[in-house]
Amino acid sequence: MNIKTINPATEEIIKEYEGISKEQIENLATKSHQAFKEWKKDSQKRSGFLYDFANVFRKNKEELAKAITKEMGKAIKEARSEVDKCAWTAEYFADNGYSFVSDEPVNTDARKSLTVFEPLGVIGSIMPWNFPYWQAIRFAIPSLMAGNTIILKPASATLQCGIELEKSFEESGVPNGVFQTIVGDSSAAEMLIDSNVNAITFTGSVEVGKKVGQRATSQLKKCVLELGGSDPFLVCEDADIEKASTGAVKGRFINCGQSCIATKRFFVVRKIAEEFIEKFAQKTEKLNVGDPFSDDTDIGPLVSSKSIDNMESIVKDALEKGGEVLTGGERVKSKGYFYRPTLLKNISPNMRVTQEEVFGPVAPITIVEDEMEGVNLANDSKFGLGASIWTEDLDKAEKYSRLIESGIVTVNNVVISDPRVTFGGIKNSGFGRELSKYGMREFVNIKSIRFYDQLVYQHHVE
After folding, report:
1. CA gap 3, 13 in Å, rounded
2. What would the DSSP string read from start to end of 312-337?
3. pLDDT at residue 459 greater than cutoff 60
4. One domain, residues 36 and 82
5. Cβ proximity of 188 and 20 under 8 Å
6. Are residues 367 and 391 in the same domain?
7. How many distinct structural domains can be found in the chain?
8. Predicted confidence band at 454 (pLDDT cuts at 50, 70, 90)?
C-alpha cells in the first residue's frame, strides 16, 4: 500500500512511500534483537552515543526543522525549538541515565539484597505527527539509555521525520539495528505489535489507544499509553492578569493548538473575568497566521483537511448551543488548512468543545463564581493529563494542585514536558509514564536479588 504525505500549507503532495510488509517487520525485529545483545552491555558506551546524537541533531537543526514544517505545518521557529529540546533530552539522560537504573540496596534479613533494573529488549513505538521528533525522542532516549533497542512506526503524515530520526542515530554512530524506523499505515502498527517485540508504547487518540492496549496486552506485552488531554487553565481571583493572559495565548495556541498538553478549557473567576478575557482576546488577535516557513509566523496550518473540517464542526456546534465567538471562528481564505485563533464564551457542558480533546486553535472560556467551582469543573472531564493554576497565593496553589485530577499540574506557567519531570496522565489520558527516572523504568525488568549465607525458614504467604 502506498502512502502520500501532503504539505498542509500548500495542499500539495510531498512524497509517496511504499508501505512495509509483515516479513520486513519481522526481519527488523530479528535484527533489533541481535543488536540488543551487545547494546545492553555497556551503559558508558550508550551514554557516549547519546552525546553524539545530541551533537548531530544540533548540527542539522535547520534541515530537521524544515522537515517538520513541510510535513505537518509547524511554525519554523517552533520546529527549531523542538529539535533543540530533543538534543537537550539526549544530553540529560546521557548525564543522568546511569544513576536512574543503578542497583539499589535493600535492607532485609539476607546478607545482601538488591533491586536491579534490566532492559526488556526490543520496544515497538507507535508515535503521532504533532511533535514528530519530540514524541519519539522522549520515549526513545531513556529507553535506549536503559539498554533497550527501538523500532519506531511514525505517523503517516510525518514519515520523513521518522526517517530523519533513524538517519540521525546512524550518523551519530549508533550500531546498526539499535534504532530502526518503519514506513506504513495503521496495518503496519498492528504488524509491529504482533511481531517479536517485547513491549509497546503508543501516543495518540483514546479510540486507537484502546485497540493498541488490547492487542499488546492480549500477547502479554507491556505497554505505555499516552492518549491526550483536555487540560484546564484556572485563573484565580488574585492571579497576575497580565502574566495569565500571556500564558493563555501560549498554552492554547502552541503548535496551532495541536498538542496533548495544550490548554483546552479555561475557567476564570467572575471577579477578574472581564479584564482577563479582554487581554486574552487582544493578544490572540496579534498572532500572525501564515506561511509556516516565515520567522514572523506564530501559527501555521492545521495538519490536514480533516482537522480543519473538525474545527469548523466543533465551533458550529458551540454556536448552535448558545456559544459566542469573541475573535476568530473561521478559516483563513487561502490555500492550505489555516484556521484563525478562536476564543469562545457562553460555554456549556453539552458542547463538543468541552467534551472532546480539541486539537486546534479554539479556546472555550467559562466564567465561574469562585475558585472551587473552577476546580470542580476542571475535574469534570474524562481526561486527566495536565492542568495549570494561576494565583499569587502559593498555599492556595498547593491546595488546588492536590485537588486537581491529573498527572501534571503547573502553577503560574503553562504545562510543558521536561526530561527532568515525569510525564503522563490518568483517566482516558492513558497510563504509564515517560521522562525522568520513572519513565526510564517503564521498560525495564525490576528484579529483586537476595544473597543468604544459609537456608532461612520464614513464615510467608506467596
Report:
1. 10
2. HHHHHHHHHTT-EEEE--SB-SSSSS
3. no
4. yes
5. yes
6. yes
7. 2
8. confident
Distance CA 125, CA 401 (A): 32
Distance between CA atoms of residues 166 and 210, nearest Å: 28
177: left (phi over 0), alpha (psi -120 to 50) or beta: left
Kindly report whether the global pTM for this prediction surpasses the value 0.90. Answer: yes
Residue 227 CB contacts under 8 Å (≥ 6 apart), including other chains = 203, 204, 205, 206, 209, 425, 428, 429, 430
Same domain flag for 342 and 256: yes
Is 228 in contact with 206 (CB distance < 8 Å)?
A: yes
358-410 residue pLDDT tens? 999 999 999 999 999 999 999 999 999 999 999 999 999 999 999 999 999 99
Helix (H, G, I), strand (E, B) or coil at 227: coil
Backbone angles phi, psi at 404, to 5 degrees: -70, 135
> What's the CA gap between 407 and 76, in Å, rounded?
30
Q: Is residue 457 part of a domain?
A: no
Domain that holds residue 180: 2-227+429-449
* Largest interatomic CA distance in the chain: 80
pLDDT score of 411 more than 80? yes
Q: Which helix (H) or strand (E) holds 246?
A: helix 241-253
Cell digits of residue 254: 502552541
* Residues sharing a CB contact under 8 Å with residue 210, sequence separation 6 or more, in sequence order: none
Rg (CA), the chain: 23
d(CA 351, CA 71): 31
- Report pLDDT for 455: 74
CB atoms within 10 A of CB 9: 22
Side-chain-side CA neighbours of residue 215 (13 Å): 21
- Type of residue at 428: N
Q: What one-letter code names the amino acid at 332? A: V
Tell me the CB-side half-sphere exposure of residue 413, using CA atoms within 13 A.
6
- Distance between first and last Cα of the chain: 51
Nearest CA among 230, 227, 245, 250 for reference residue 414: 250
Same domain membership, residue 36 and residue 131: yes
Are 94 and 50 in contact by the 8 Å Cβ rule? The answer is yes
Catalytic residues: 226, 260
Q: Residue 290 carries which DSSP code?
A: S
pLDDT over 90 for what percent of the chain? 97
- For residue 289, give the CATH number of its domain: 3.40.309.10
44: CATH: 3.40.605.10
β-bridge partners, 149? 122
**DSSP run (H or E) holding 364:** strand 362-368
147 residue type, one letter: G
In a domain, 325, yes or no: yes
Rounded-to-10 torsion of CA 140, 359, 298, 337: 110
Distance (Å, whole) CA 44 – CA 426: 35
